[in-house]
């Protein structure tokens, strides 16, 4: 057996997912590497077409995800647990919150922490603002892009993965979220298509983030004087070195080492954050954070649906910022969502949504306020020195540090943080790619991790070669559109699963079995395993219900009450016991033959005997007040009499209370 045969034999990759993804990646690599100018022109045209026609869709979808999660949070569905009802959270609340902080950090915050507020400040949406409103608008717009909406996109995927993975015991893959809609077909064409789009989305989202990271690492080395080049060759060397380290980490299985590295990086980022707060305009930052939070939350609904439909001159701004962000978040959703899902087992949906939406968002807002607010203040104090280098976005962070004490220290720390984020993001990304392409398999051969590392490197460099960061953004934008459609349908599947879950776990024992003892258990077992038909129901009405109601009529009349029994024959026979009242509504306890469709799973199960028909018939109670009835087929005559008396006792208790007169009064007598 040669090397290729051994690799194929040990592979966990699923061909219907892996092959289309690889073919698309190879096609993009070939096109961008051999025809860079044409690729740049075509990708630019496609990006503009998407901006012109689908910008509204990205905005609407992001807002739908946010509102959908808020509705789940405040509804009774929020009580459902991600796992069995008895499952406890695997991590303490503090540890879980800390890991959500880690998920909220990344290359993006390092790259845009200074850059985005400065760029919005220098190039505002509306030009007729005074200085204070310019700052406020810049910060609120940044919060919008990095706040709750971004995490709502992540949370939809994470919630679906956690819910269907831990509650339904399905694999932690995107297709599992479509189980209520597709049933067993998630293992076929549609399931493969969903995972293929998710895999492609994750790939292009990863290389976009890694592209930002590589540019900023290069800018950091330039700022420190280590290298003096911004060429594509220098960038390629940095990417290859970082990806090599990520692949070594992925294949070595040093999970604990990466975990410790990530936690260390989070501590370093926290130290850097505190340093900037102290070294910057401290009091102004705290005051600004308080005011900006209030402004952000008060205007959240308005900006959520902002598409500038009546301000066409702003369409370019919307496309270049918000739409690209929403596409980026969607492409990262499988990556971040899988991480969040894995650490959230045992939490309730309400706790999950509140934690995922607000904890990382608030931290991101704190980060952006600290770095962005300080940068705007420094730019004002220095007469626009940061504005002068705003054309080179990746240099803004290190240019910002030049105006703070301990410039070299802070720049080196920032460079270390960015580098570690680059490596750990790539390592985690390889893990997610293996997970999606292998349909949730946890143990994968090492060569697969090498393959994904090489693919990410080659694909990222080829796109950068043809058009730089713009080409990476375009591919993310393209693949995010179908994935956002998938996410919207996923919300429907999640809703259906939750509704069925609520009905299933709230289903109580039937009234007929509530007081069972061991007496007559064989006869009752026979009824359970043998589906009933109309003849069985007619027999029950004649042999159990009729004698029971007849005795009740006699006994009620002995107590001076007017009672009667009504038998209505027909295709679906029914029988009633009625107590006639004057001012009150009549008391009615009826039983009618009703049909119920059986689950196909039961009908087709060879190990469930005696069930060949798709429909069964049951004797179901009904009442004059329209309450929902229940099955009484397992009751004996005495048990049925007891059930009628129980309902009559409830009726009389309600009738004796003036509070319920509107329902208990005889409406027919009133209208007469």
TrEMBL record:
<comment type="similarity">
    <text>Belongs to the BCCT transporter (TC 2.A.15) family.</text>
</comment>
<feature type="transmembrane region" description="Helical">
    <location>
        <begin position="232"/>
        <end position="254"/>
    </location>
</feature>
<keyword id="KW-1133">Transmembrane helix</keyword>
<keyword id="KW-1003">Cell membrane</keyword>
<feature type="transmembrane region" description="Helical">
    <location>
        <begin position="449"/>
        <end position="468"/>
    </location>
</feature>
<keyword id="KW-0472">Membrane</keyword>
<feature type="transmembrane region" description="Helical">
    <location>
        <begin position="94"/>
        <end position="114"/>
    </location>
</feature>
<feature type="transmembrane region" description="Helical">
    <location>
        <begin position="56"/>
        <end position="74"/>
    </location>
</feature>
<dbReference type="GO" id="GO:0005886">
    <property type="term" value="C:plasma membrane"/>
</dbReference>
<dbReference type="InterPro" id="IPR000060">
    <property type="entry name" value="BCCT_transptr"/>
</dbReference>
<keyword id="KW-0812">Transmembrane</keyword>
<keyword id="KW-0813">Transport</keyword>
<feature type="transmembrane region" description="Helical">
    <location>
        <begin position="353"/>
        <end position="378"/>
    </location>
</feature>
<feature type="transmembrane region" description="Helical">
    <location>
        <begin position="323"/>
        <end position="341"/>
    </location>
</feature>
<feature type="transmembrane region" description="Helical">
    <location>
        <begin position="12"/>
        <end position="36"/>
    </location>
</feature>
<feature type="transmembrane region" description="Helical">
    <location>
        <begin position="187"/>
        <end position="212"/>
    </location>
</feature>
<feature type="transmembrane region" description="Helical">
    <location>
        <begin position="266"/>
        <end position="286"/>
    </location>
</feature>
<feature type="transmembrane region" description="Helical">
    <location>
        <begin position="474"/>
        <end position="495"/>
    </location>
</feature>
<dbReference type="Pfam" id="PF02028">
    <property type="entry name" value="BCCT"/>
</dbReference>
<dbReference type="GO" id="GO:0022857">
    <property type="term" value="F:transmembrane transporter activity"/>
</dbReference>
<feature type="transmembrane region" description="Helical">
    <location>
        <begin position="143"/>
        <end position="166"/>
    </location>
</feature>
<protein>
    <submittedName>
        <fullName>Choline/glycine/proline betaine transport protein</fullName>
    </submittedName>
</protein>
<dbReference type="InterPro" id="IPR018093">
    <property type="entry name" value="BCCT_CS"/>
</dbReference>
<feature type="transmembrane region" description="Helical">
    <location>
        <begin position="412"/>
        <end position="437"/>
    </location>
</feature>
């Amino acid at each position: 057996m040669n090397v290729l045969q051994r690799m194929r034999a040990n592979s966990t990759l699923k061909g219907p997912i892996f092959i289309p993804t690889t073919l698309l990646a190879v096609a993009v690599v070939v096109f961008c590497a051999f025809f860079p100018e044409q690729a740049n022109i075509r990708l630019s045209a496609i990006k503009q077409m998407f901006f012109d026609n689908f910008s509204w869709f990205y905005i609407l979808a992001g807002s739908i995800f946010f509102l959908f999660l808020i509705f789940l949070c405040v509804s009774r569905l929020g009580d459902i647990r991600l796992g069995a009802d008895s499952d406890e959270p695997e991590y303490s609340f503090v540890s879980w919150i800390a890991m959500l902080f880690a998920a909220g950090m990344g290359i993006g915050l390092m790259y845009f922490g200074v850059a985005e507020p400065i760029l919005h400040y220098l190039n505002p949406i509306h030009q007729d603002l005074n200085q204070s409103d310019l700052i406020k608008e810049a910060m609120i717009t940044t919060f919008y892009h990095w706040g709750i909406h971004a995490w709502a996109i992540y949370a939809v995927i994470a919630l679906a993965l956690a819910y269907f993975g831990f509650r339904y015991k399905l694999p932690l893959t995107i297709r599992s979220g479509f189980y209520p809609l597709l049933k067993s077909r998630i293992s076929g064409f549609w399931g493969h298509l969903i995972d293929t789009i998710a895999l492609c989305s994750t790939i292009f989202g990863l290389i976009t983030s890694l592209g930002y990271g590589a540019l900023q690492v290069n800018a950091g080395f330039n700022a420190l004087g280590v290298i003096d080049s911004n060429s594509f060759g220098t960038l390629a060397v940095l990417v290859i070195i970082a990806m090599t380290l990520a692949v070594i980490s992925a294949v070595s299985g040093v999970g604990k080492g990466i975990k410790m590295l990530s936690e260390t990086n989070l501590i370093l980022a926290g130290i850097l954050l505190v340093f900037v707060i102290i070294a910057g305009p401290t009091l102004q930052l705290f005051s600004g954070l308080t005011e900006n939070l209030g402004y952000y939350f008060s205007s959240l609904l308005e900006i959520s649906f902002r598409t500038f439909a009546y301000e066409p001159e702003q369409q370019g701004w919307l496309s270049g910022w918000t739409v690209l962000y929403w596409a980026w978040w969607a492409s990262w959703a499988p990556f971040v969502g899988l991480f969040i899902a894995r650490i959230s087992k045992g939490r309730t949906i309400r706790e999950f949504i509140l934690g995922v939406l607000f904890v990382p968002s608030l931290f991101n807002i704190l980060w952006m306020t600290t770095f962005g607010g300080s940068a705007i203040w420094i730019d004002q104090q220095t007469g626009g020195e940061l504005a002068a280098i705003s054309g080179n976005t990746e240099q803004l962070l290190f240019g910002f540090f030049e105006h703070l004490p301990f410039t070299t220290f802070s720049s080196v720390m920032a460079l270390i943080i960015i580098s570690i984020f680059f490596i750990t993001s790539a390592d985690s990304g390889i893990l997610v790619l293996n997970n999606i392409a292998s349909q949730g398999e946890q143990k994968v051969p090492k060569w697969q991790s090498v393959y994904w590392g090489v693919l990410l490197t080659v694909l990222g460099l080829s796109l950068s070669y043809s058009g730089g960061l713009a080409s990476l953004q375009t591919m993310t934008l393209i693949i995010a559109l179908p994935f956002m459609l998938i996410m919207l349908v996923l919300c429907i599947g999640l809703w259906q699963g939750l509704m069925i879950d609520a009905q299933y776990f709230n289903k109580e024992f039937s009234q007929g079995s509530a007081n069972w003892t061991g007496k007559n258990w064989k006869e009752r077992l026979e009824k359970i395993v043998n589906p009933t038909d109309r003849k069985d129901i007619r027999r029950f009405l004649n042999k159990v219900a009729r004698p029971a109601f007849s005795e009740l009529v006699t006994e009620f009349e002995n107590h001076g009450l007017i009672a009667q029994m009504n038998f209505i024959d027909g295709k679906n026979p029914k029988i009633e016991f009625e107590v006639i009242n004057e001012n009150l509504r009549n008391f009615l306890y009826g039983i009618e033959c009703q049909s119920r469709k059986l689950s196909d799973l039961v009908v087709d199960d060879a190990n469930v005997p005696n069930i060949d028909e798709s429909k069964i018939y049951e004797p179901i109670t009904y009442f004059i007040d329209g309450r929902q009835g229940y099955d009484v087929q397992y009751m004996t005559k005495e048990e049925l009499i007891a059930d009628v008396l129980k309902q009559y006792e409830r009726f009389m208790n309600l009738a004796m209370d003036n509070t319920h007169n509107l329902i208990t009064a005889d409406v027919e007598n009133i209208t007469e």
